[in-house]
Write a structure and sequence with these properties.
The complex is a heterodimer of chains A (298) and B (267). Chain A has two domains: 1-247, Rossmann fold (3-Layer(aba) Sandwich), CATH 3.40.50; 249-298, Roll (Ribosomal Protein L24e, Chain: T). Chain A is 27% helix and 17% strand. Chain A contains seven helices and twelve strands. The relative contact order of chain A is 0.16. Residues 1-13 of chain A have low confidence and may be disordered. With 267 residues, chain B is an alpha/beta fold. In chain B, 37% of the residues lie in helices and 22% in strands. Chain B has ten helices and ten strands. In chain B, β9 and β10 form a beta hairpin. In chain B, 45% of the residues are buried. The chains are: A alpha/beta (298), B alpha/beta (267).
């Protein structure tokens, strides 16, 4: 599926599946979604309920993200779908195929060429620019859920900005492990007001959300909640004064491109050794392409 | 322990509180025309049999239960009077975690059983914006020793604490923000007698040392005798007798109080 050409691949544009509305959902559903999205953008980080529809894939596979993408995708858009940073995993391939068939728009694996990027578990390494939309698939939109399972109660906590509870979780981590052990889905404070779940992206990616030029939309299908972070919105990861938030790199270099600054996947090989590679496959290819000219591992 | 001069103004005033539970077809009032005043540094005991409306009164004072009529007014630290039931939710919650404390009958309801003792004590402080881990921990340890818990067990879950220890942890968790008013719902019920005695001693000590005002709901007249300056006797949702604890218990006027006092079992 990886394209080596610079132009976006036009997959199935002539063969848009018949009998389906553009982008699968009917227009009234999309309108409902857009209305909820507008509200979400107006109140950054606030969870907006929406009427989640049954989608042709199981909960947990990105039903929320897919509905958000369907609501915002237009004929001129170029779609990229990643799962754990990779363009060619089952989830990514299926969702990309799904939109290629139901909209007939172009898809790509290049971050720079995409206008809509649906993602699960990662933010691309390539810095995003204005005009791009990130769509996150979110399993649990409520950051307080693990400490306060009552939905009515957490609504109240968000409304009155009573967030002592969130720090209780971080306190507990430090007390038990000596450092904050939350390495993914690390809670953030959006625009100095709402605490939101960044979806299960690694804490490594959290700083990328701060003042990001692209629009970030979050969809949780099973939980029926949407939320958003508009472009250039301050996003802080929660921490303690004496235990500040830090990004931990794995301290290895990618075996394929030599990159040391990207988030790496650990792959076990047959002989028992481990191989580290970039989790963002598009980034890895870019690095491989420029490496010979630079001559040095980055 | 009499209130100091210049503190004649009450801290809390309840005026003609009436509560009727919506599901109650009989139209019976769970609380009827309850009027009381609480002065700074004063401990008020509410006694009565089960179902007499003691806890309903307490919940109503705490703003957890809206009365059908009547009002609860509280004098804030800055001297301003606020109506507990008319003020916005946000302000009430802030008040509840700064100037007030609420000790539940079941410690499990007042504690976060999933997190360590230290986190339980630190929660209110973190809610107020305290973001220094080492200081939070130090405060938690200080409070654990104040309530006679082993400070070395700070990282243990309250699940591993006994009933009496949980109750003491709950008290520490409430007092850490140095509240002015503490509401206690049967704090010693369900504990064995020796643990009860130690807990009562502790509460008496803390209340006096921190100059707290407290409303203690209990069905145990001994608790009232030990802790309270004044006692209020409730029956069927009404306050039937009200006065200094020693007066109420030694010279009960109302027939129900006489019955209550005479039915105490003495070994």
């Amino acid at each position: 599926m990886r394209t080596s050409t610079a132009t976006p691949e036009r997959s199935g544009s002539d063969a848009q599946a018949e009998g389906y509305n553009y982008a699968y959902l009917d227009e009234r559903t999309k309108r409902m979604l857009r209305r909820a999205l507008l509200k979400a953008v107006a109140i950054p980080g606030h969870q907006v309920p929406f009427g989640s529809r049954e989608m042709p894939l199981a909960y947990g596979w990105g039903t929320g993200g897919i509905q958000v993408t369907a609501a915002v995708i237009g004929r001129g858009d170029v779609l990229k779908v990643i799962d754990q940073g990779s363009d060619d995993t089952t989830n990514a391939v299926n969702i990309r195929e799904f939109f290629a068939r139901t909209t007939g728009i172009a898809t790509t694996t290049r971050t720079t060429e995409a206008t809509v990027i649906q993602t699960r578990h990662r933010i691309p390494e390539t810095p995003l620019r204005e005009g791009q939309i990130m769509v996150y698939q979110v399993p649990q939109p409520e950051p307080l859920y693990k400490l306060e399972p009552r939905r009515a109660e957490t609504l109240g906590l968000h409304a009155v900005e009573e967030y002592g509870l969130m720090n209780v979780k971080l306190y507990e981590d430090i007390a038990q492990w000596g450092h904050v052990e939350t390495t993914s889905d690390y809670p953030v404070r959006v625009n100095g007001r709402y605490i939101a779940s960044p979806s299960p992206i690694p804490a490594f990616d959290n700083p990328k959300m701060n003042l990001m030029p692209a629009l970030q939309l979050f969809g949780a299908g099973r939980e029926k909640r949407l939320y958003a972070i508009p472009p250039y919105t301050p996003v802080q990861s929660l921490d303690f004064e004496d235990h500040p938030f830090t990004v931990k790199t794995q301290g290895e270099a990618c075996a394929l491109c030599g990159c040391t600054t990207s988030f790496l996947d650990e792959i076990a090989t047959e002989d028992g050794a481990t191989l580290w590679t970039c989790s963002d496959t598009d980034w890895c290819e870019q690095q491989q392409a420029i490496r010979p000219t630079e001559g040095e591992p980055r | 322990m009499k209130p100091a001069a210049g503190e004649r103004t009450p801290l809390l005033q309840a005026d003609a509180l009436c509560v009727r539970f919506p599901g109650d077809a009989s139209g019976r009032e769970a609380l009827s025309q309850a009027t009381l005043e609480l002065h700074p540094g004063e401990v008020l005991a509410v006694v009565g049999e089960s179902g007499s409306g003691k806890t309903t009164l307490l919940n109503c004072l705490a703003g957890r239960l809206a009365p059908r009529s009547g009002s609860v007014r509280y004098r804030c630290a800055d001297g301003e009077w606020v109506d507990v039931h008319a003020m916005p939710e946000r302000q009430r919650r802030l008040l509840a975690r700064t100037e007030w404390g609420f000790v539940e009958q079941q410690a499990a309801a007042g504690l976060r059983m999933g997190v360590s003792a230290g986190a339980n004590i630190g929660e209110r402080l973190m809610g107020l914006g305290d973001r220094h881990y080492a200081k939070l921990r130090e405060t938690a340890q200080t409070w654990m020793s104040l309530v006679e818990l082993d400070a070395a067990r700070i990282d243990e879950s309250p699940r591993r604490f006994s009933g009496g220890m949980r109750q003491r942890l709950q008290i520490a968790r409430n007092l850490v923000t140095r509240p002015r008013l503490v509401l206690m719902d049967e704090p010693t019920t369900g504990l064995d007698v020796s643990v009860q005695a130690r807990l009562l001693d502790l509460i008496r000590l803390l209340v006096a040392r921190m100059h707290l005002s407290a409303v203690v709901v209990t069905h145990d007249l001994g608790v009232a005798r030990l802790l309270a300056h004044r006692t209020l006797v409730m029956r069927e949702g009404r306050i039937v007798e009200h006065g200094l604890t020693d007066r109420v218990l030694d010279d009960p006027q109302h027939p129900y109080t006489q019955l209550l006092v005479s039915s105490v079992v003495t070994p």
